[in-house]
Amino acid sequence: MTPMRKRTHTVMTTVIVATLLAVAIAARTRQDASISFPDSYRTWAHVKSVVVGPTSAAFATEGGIHHIYANPSAVDGYRTGKFPDGAIIVYDLLETKEAAGNLLEGAPRRLDVMIKDRRRFAANEGWGFASFKGGERTGGDLSPERQRKCLDCHAKRRDHDYVQSAFRD
Amino acid sequence: MTPMRKRTHTVMTTVIVATLLAVAIAARTRQDASISFPDSYRTWAHVKSVVVGPTSAAFATEGGIHHIYANPSAVDGYRTGKFPDGAIIVYDLLETKEAAGNLLEGAPRRLDVMIKDRRRFAANEGWGFASFKGGERTGGDLSPERQRKCLDCHAKRRDHDYVQSAFRD
Fold it and tell me: pLDDT tens digit string along A144-155?
């Protein structure tokens, strides 16, 4: 190998290694920030429910009945006001249907998740947010900007560790 | 002791022993059939919810929002259609209040319990029933006749082990 070829080879090797490293770090970061569907949430504690009716200002996006669920770590958080890492809260929004004067639960409309992990979501006060379309169990990840918007709205309850709801006793 | 006194003594002893036995058996039976308030039900799985409105035929007694909760054994029952001993289901009826177009949970109205125990409630197809007035945690016991009436109404779901509700997935 000539000195010229040797330098070219070294440069190429460096570029390849650097590229592979960058790809690996990006993949790790993506995986690290991804929030999977909380498969077991239907056996978690039920925090509270609200029916958002047609005259509510929030009807367009939140109309229906929503239930809030908390995993055991989040139940501790509701009791102490500080949510430990691993706490997960689900906002489960369903359509409603009327039958003989009763309002029944209908099709799933949207399922939002907030999860506490001070390392993974350090840039967002420790809270990661995801949002799954009605009935879907994948594709819930939100961009950092969208997650920041979630947090901004939750910031009115900064005194309650950014969790808006209270556990109905 | 004369023979007369001896006989009297024997009769008295027998009466006392029999009375004590009867009292003990009655107490045991009462205790055995008593259903205590399910203290931990707010962390159990949430089966489903219904809002019973003013135009519903059931409004007088069931008006409001009710949530149904199941302990882990009852969750198994919902999945298999057969409820094991120890399964407990709670029907939690709350008043509702309106605020800015939203229907919120209000004060507790009544809390009904059904519990599966094929030995204790053998006379009632294995199901014991209790009903606690709004916010009260004692005084939920019902007479055998009242419990039979509960079961009679639940009998329309005999194919589902007398449980009327289905677990919302």
Answer: 999 999 999 999
- From chain B, the residues in CB contact with A64 under 8 A are none
Give me the sign of the Cα torsion angle B78, B83, B88, B89. positive
On chain A, the residues whose CB falls within 8 A of the CB of B91 are: none
Mutate to test the interface with A, among B40, B42, B137 (most CBs of A within 10 A): B42
> What's the predicted TM-score (pTM) here?
0.84
Q: What ipTM, to 2 d.p.? A: 0.84
The reported pLDDT for the residue numbered B29 is 56
Q: How many cross-chain Cβ pairs, A to B, lie less than 8 Å apart?
A: 78
- Could you tell me the pLDDT band of residue A10, with boundaries at 50, 70 and 90? confident
Which residues partner with B51 through β-bridges? Answer: A103, B65
Residue from B43, B73, B92 whose CB has the most chain A CBs within 10 Å, to mutate? B43
- A52 contacts in chain B (CB < 8 Å): 101-102
| Dist. CA A133–CA A135, nearest whole Å | 6
Q: How many CB atoms lie within 10 A of CB B131?
A: 18
Dihedral in degrees, nearest 10, Cα atoms B100, B105, B106, B107: -170
**pLDDT value for A47:** 98
Q: Which two tokens stand for residue A49?
A: 């429910």
* Mean pLDDT computed over A7-12: 74
Q: What's chain B's average pLDDT?
A: 92
pLDDT (tens digit, 9 = 90+) per residue, B103-125?
999 999 999 999 999 999 999 99
Cα B87 from Cα B22, distance rounded (Å):
31
Contact B101 A43 (CB under 8 A): no
Tell if the CB–CB gap between B50 and A101 is shorter than 8 Å.
no
Nearest CB neighbour to B59, from listed A45, A69, A101: A101
